[in-house]
Amino acid sequence: MAENELAAFRERWKQELTGKKDEKPLLVSASTSSRDLPGQSGRKDLKNTNKTCSFSDLKEDVGERGDIEAAAETEEDQPQYVSIARSLLDGRTSPLLDRIQEERTRRKRHYHSMTNVCSASLQQQQPQRKVKKEEELVDQLIQDLNEVNDIPFFDIELPYELALKIFQYLSCTELGRCAQVSKAWRVLAEDSVLWFRMCTREGFHEDASVSDSPCWKSTLRDCRNSAKTVSSNWKNRVGSISQLQFELGKVLCDVSSCDSFVLAGYTSGDVRLWDTLHWDSAASYLKANSLSANTEPRPHVSHVQVNGTVAAAAYEDGCVDLWSTETGGQPIHHYQSPGRIQALALSPDSPVLLSAAGSDVRLDRADDCGYWRTACQAQLPSTVDGVILVPGRGQQCPLAALTAGEAVYLLDPREEEPRTLHSVYGHPVTCLDASYSQVAFGVKRTGWAMHDGGNKIHVYSLETSKPTVCVGNSPGDFTCINLRDGPPHLLVCGNKDRRVRVFDLRTGSSVASLYAHHLGVTSVQADDWKIVSGGGEGLVCVWEMRMGAKLWEMHNRHRGVICHYDFSEDALSQDHILPICRSDYTESHGYNYNIGLAVPYDRLSGSHSSH
C-alpha cells in the first residue's frame, strides 16, 4: 500500500513539474474535493484545508492574475517608456514587478495544489487523524525549502549561496545593520561561515576550521576584546612580571622565545625550557645528548632557538640537539659538526634547522612522518657570520639567507650551490633579517665609501634577487634589523649611534628617528603600532610608532635573570609583584635581594593585618 501511494505521489509530482496539468482545473478540484466530502469528515477536511489553502487566498490569486493579464494586454500596444511611467504612477518601484508578482502567484498556486493533492491521496488510504499529521509535515517541508533557498533582495529573490557570496564582502558594522532588515537577512548575516572568514582574515585562529567553534561571531568578539585589552595594558604598563631563574651561580649564555615558550642555555651545559602558559610542564627540563652529558667539564651552550614545536641548542664542542616542546626529555635529533657552531637558525613556522660551523653550512628538516633528515650541505668561501631562515616557505622548500664577510648568499636545497645575492669588497655586513618576500642587511662602509653618505641598509627582493631600495645615512654601524614582524612597508633598525630608526620602504625615506640608548642599540622589534628596543646598558624601552613617544622603560639590573612580562593579566595582584618588593625579612642570604624595603607590598613576619 505504501509503495502504491508513493508511486501515485511521484506521478502527480511529475505532472506538476512538467506543467501538463492546467492550473484552473486544479483550482476547481481543490475547491470541489473538500465540498464533496460528506458528513463530519468533510467538515474536518475543510477545516484542515483552510489551514493551507483558503478560498479567499485563491480568489485573491485569481484576481491578481486577472489584473496582471489585463494590464499586460493594454500595455502591449504602448511604448516601453509609457509602461514604465504607468508602473511608477501606480506606486510600483520596479518595471519587473509584473514578472515578480506572476512568479509569486505561480509558486503560491503550485504550493496549494500540491498540498491538496497530497491530502486527498492520504485521506483514501489512512485514517483521518493521520491525514492532519502528514499534511503538516509536507507543509513544513515545503516551507523550510522555500525559506532556505529564497532570500529576498529588494525586488528579487536570490538563492542562499549567492546571497552568502554577496554578504562576505561586508564589514562587521554592515552585517549588524543588515541583520536588522528582516528575519531572513538576520539568519544570513549571522552565518558561521561569514564570521569564520572574518576571524581568520583579521589574524585570529588562522589554523582553525569552521566546526571548531559553535559561534564564530562570539569568538571574534572575544578575540577583539582581548587584543584591545593587551594593547591598553602595553600602553599603560599593566601586566604581570615573572623572573625565570634556573639555578644560582650559572651564567646565562643565550635566550630565545616564540609564542609562549622561552628557551635558555647556560655555561653549565644545561638547557631549560619554560612554557609560560603551563608552568608545571614536564618538558621544562631538557636532557643533553650522551656525548655532551658524559664530557667533563660539560661544554657551554653557545646558541639556542625555539619555535612552536621544537627547541634546538648548539654546544661549544659542535654538538647540536633538538627536542620536542610537547614531550621534552631526550633529544629527538642529534648531530655532530667538525667545529664550533658559529650560527644557528630555526624556522618560526616549520620544522627546519640551519647551522653553520666555520664555512660549512648544514640544513636539516623533518619529513612527513616526523623523521629528521639532512636536506643539503654547502661550503662558502669564508666563515659564516649570520644565518636566517625565510619565514612562510614551509618545510618542503625552505630558503635561507647567510652572511659571510662582505657577501650575502641565498641557500636553496633545490640548487647545487648557494647563490650570491650581494658582495662588495671592503663593505662587511653587520646585521641581517628577512621576511617572506624580502631580505634586508646592514653594510658598513669604510674609507672612501664614507663620503657616499655613510652606512646603508640594502633591501633585496627574494623573487627577482634584485635590489629594491637602499636606506640609511648614518656614521654608526647598524647593529640590528627587524623586517619580518612589522608592517610590510616598514623597516625598523638599531644603530651604534644610540638611535632607533624607522624607514618607509615604499619611498625610501625615514619615518622616525628615536634617541633610545646611550650605549648603543642591541636589539629591536616592532609590530603595527609599537617598537620595543634594548640597549647595552640593560634598558628596555617601549615606543609608540605613530607619535614617536616613549611609553615606558624598564631596567633589568640582575644579570642571568630572565624577566617575563605578561600584559594580558592584571599586575595589581599580589602574585605578580617582584620578590624585591615582597620581602619578609626572614631569609639570611641576599642573592634574591630580600632586603628591608619600606614599601606597601612588604609582608612582615608576625604582623597583623590592619583594617
From TrEMBL:
A Pfam family: F-box-like
Stretches assigned to the F-box domain: 152-198
Domain of life (superkingdom): Eukaryota
SUPFAM superfamilies to which the protein is assigned, alphabetical: F-box domain, WD40 repeat-like
Ranges where the record places region Disordered: 20-51
PROSITE patterns: FBOX (PS50181)
Protein name in the entry: F-box domain-containing protein
Organism of provenance: Amphiprion ocellaris
Phylogenetic lineage: Eukaryota, Metazoa, Chordata, Craniata, Vertebrata
Gene name as annotated: FBXW8
